[in-house]
Amino acid sequence: MNGGEIIARVLQKQGVNFLFTLCGGHISPIFVSAEKLGIRVIDTRHEVNAVFAADAVSRLTGIPGVATVTAGPGLTNTITAIKNAYLAQSPLVLLGGAAATILKGRGSLQDIDQMTMMKPNVKWAATITKVKDIVPTLEKAFAIAKEGVPGPVFVECPIDTLYGEELVRGWYGAKSKEEPPKNLQERVVQWYINRHAKNLFAGKESVNFDTPAIKVTYPKHSSGQIDKVAARIGSAKKPVMLIGSGAMMSPQKAKELSAAVSKLGIPVYLSGMGRGLLGKENPLQMRHNRKDAIKESDLVILAGVPNDFRLDYGNHIGGRPFISINRSREDLTKNKNPTIGILADPEEFLIALAGKFQGNFGTWIETLRARDNKREANINEQAAAPTQSGINPIKLFRELDPRLDDNTVLVADGGDFVATSAYTLKPRAPLSWLDPGVFGTLGVGAGFALGAKLVFPEKDVYIIYGDGSAGYSLMEYDTFVRHKLPVISIIGNDACWSQIARDQVDFLKADTAMNLAYSDYQDIGKAFGADGVRVHDLEAFNNAVETAKKASRAGTPFIINAIIGKTDFRKGSISV
């Protein structure tokens, strides 16, 4: 059994169903062996998208997604996705190829100091130096990815730890006794090579796959903390709750969390992986004027939400009391110490809290609902306003929302167009919205959609692309076609980096580097065997959505290239 086969066996034991990769000779034994064991191997067109796909699988299943990439540039191509996963607290395992252990530092192909590069961007990093260490190293990697605050880990797999011993000895030039060294220098070299090979493969026959699973730990709440928080909320008249990605770390408990939040009866704002938690319509969920709601409240509950730039570093809360529940000690107190801080899993805490508390804040909810309804009416007015050219993007999403089926997953990848969708589209269920998270990364679209479609093959998976962000990953339509993953993309095409342009033009009076073209993006999909259409008006767009759904359900990926106009809907929305 070679090292690649050993890794595949560990992945199978860990419940890994999908392995994302872009091929490379350094890592071939890993994905070849994985496929033989029934793990579905998905090869992408860029390594960053392999990691984005693994990230999506992690978020939607709770099982760390796995990507394997080749050495050197294969690994450097993953850095953005790995850092995005780190900041989004997604548990994933990245397996990276590397130069042979005996050749490191000697100018081997694609040999760089990978460990120094990766360590600042992951929770834990390790390099395999002996075949017998593969199993314990990978088992530790999976445990660390999931424990405490989840995150990505990196395991470096040198090429000579993955291939068979006989082949590796041949690469080394380790001569047999029938070919004795010719001189002292050659004798010393052969002694060193043979010793290195012996150490590399020593104990490989005793590899054990039946060791007990490493117990995954994370901070737990106490019953006393539940009672304390229940009493504090019970004394409030106008509480408001914010639920973010940090409260969605166990996807299998998402429906239980949804029921708990409904039972608590506290008006709630959802963000990140929390979007869709309460379904399309729930009287407790508010979508607008969050800042005003916080400022009028007498208690704020942050569940998996830090006081970062999204809450103006705590300035939105100001001096009012707030409760923070978070697995991360850093996020628990970021920029502001909570009145009550609970270092625990927010999801488990809220589920337990619902067993002790059931609120009734009807008058307060009615106040917030009236304000939400007023904002919705205002958005409808803006949606009805004409644009100089193209489709009003607000109206586009107003038309799209009722056409989305309940079995829909939305992947957000872009700036202005995508942010507009966040105000207007209503995710249908828990785990039905994927966005990059706090890092604000462009380019997640195809990778996230790839992972989502594999996890939920029965669902319609849409990528909401800006025309800028689409440029990062439209080549993955080749991957969608080859692997029969019929994803739908909607590209808001205004030939501009609009989110940046809006403020740049105002502040600097220049549109330098802001302009794109009204390109025929739909033809990129057609080049790979997908389908698509370019639309200029709402009637054509609505028809295209129905066509896209039919095509997707028949197995054909689809691109809708929607030519949109410009609005001031998000004027002044720059984040710093």
Decide which structural class fits the backbone.
Answer: alpha/beta
Which strand order spans the largest sheet, edge to edge or round the barrel? 2-1-3-4-6-5
Cα gyration radius (Å):
26 Å
The percentage helix is 25-40%
Averaged pLDDT: 94
Question: If helices are DSSP runs of H or I spanning 4 or more residues, what is the number of helices?
Answer: 23
Strand content: 5-15%
Oligomer: single chain
Please summarize the sheet with the most strands: 6 strands, parallel
**Alpha carbon gap, first and last residue:** 52 Å
| Gross morphology | globular
Low-confidence stretches: none
Number of separate strands: 17
Task: Give structural notes.
This protein has 576 residues and is α/β, with parallel strands linked by helices. It has 23 helices and 17 strands. Helices cover 40% and strands 15% of the residues. It has a six-stranded parallel beta sheet, sandwiched between helices. Strands 13-12-14-15-17-16 form a six-stranded parallel beta sheet, with helices on both faces. A five-stranded parallel beta sheet has the order 8-7-9-10-11, sandwiched between helices. α2 links the parallel β1 (18-21) and β2 (40-43). The longest helix is centred in the middle third of the chain and has 23 residues, at 362-384. The chain is globular and about 90 Å long.
